[in-house]
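SAMPLE LOG
Freezer: B-3
Tube label: C17
Construct: single chain, 379 aa
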Amino acid sequence: MVAARLNSDVFAPERCARLVVKIGSALLVGSDGEVRRDWLTGLIADIVDRREQGQEIILVSSGSVALGKRALGLQGNPRKSLEDAQAAAAVGQITLSHNWSELLGQRNLMAALMLVTLGDLEDRRRYLNASATLDRLLTLGAVPVVNENDSVATEAIRFGDNDRLAARIGQAGSADGVILLSDVAGLYSADPTKDESAEMLDEVSVIDDEIMAMAGSGSASGMGSGGMISKLEAAKIATSAGIPLAIVSGKRTRPLRCFAADGVGTLFTPQKVPSAHKAWLAGRLTSKGQIVVDSGAVEALAGGNSLLSAGAIGISGMFERGDVVDITDKFGTIIARGLAEYDSVSTARIVGKKTAELEAILGYAPRSALVHRDHLVLL
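STRUCTURE (predicted):
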């Protein structure tokens, strides 16, 4: 099917001043465990063209674990063992960085390596530091090459895939668009390898349960850590921050030029642009706890109101004032995220209570809300 031309126009240099491009392991590393240098040279030619047109590029590059696996002689999938994955990443990152530096250098571009962990983008101060570094590197003319620091990341504290990392880097880097170069051309209505009637979606405006159900699980190549589900999660993060995201085939030579020419891919259109603080909140992958609310509170939050104690029906987790908490409905669906105005102990004491009752319960003048609307974002 022919994709809408709008898909590529959104990411054209004249409309997208700063672009994040994510490259998956299956595209960058061949079945022999070596970097696909001819393909990478073509992608860098695309980057050169876009830079000449005034577009700034941030790269999010997978591949360190796949490269390290071969160098260390590891068998099977090293990601099944945390220790093997960490060791492979430590070795493979050197090879990966060398290739980016060498091939970009051949086109008179300077590569700048940034290894980040989940905590670097979940903690507000460290997030702002990463944002400032990205901006300064681009100002100085360098090409940031970002990867998760898999050599120290643990199963409990990591992005788990570079799709979501790319979306978060899009936020931190104040990007105008994110492109996920993938071994699939876009989001299909069903698995195209099993269902001949499957069609690729040109554009998605709302990522609801129906859209999520279209995603299979796992990586098509078996080499990366993500799959279509991770790409949809990345799209949620990017679009909630007002950033369009596209899933595009990276199997073609000069993939960015091809996308600009034919627009084949799936575009996820952004929501209303929130404040930078609320965009950071919406894109977080972790929280300290949850506050469960009734249907009346769900409606009140949708109308732009703060979360009051009377609308809460339960909590879970241990959190302090100022920690990030998820707000869920009674079915467990996360509907909002924000900063707690009370710690979990105090919150538990006033759940379901009217504002007039709070001072007698707490022994001090209460705050206006459990989560104030200025520090709350709908999901």
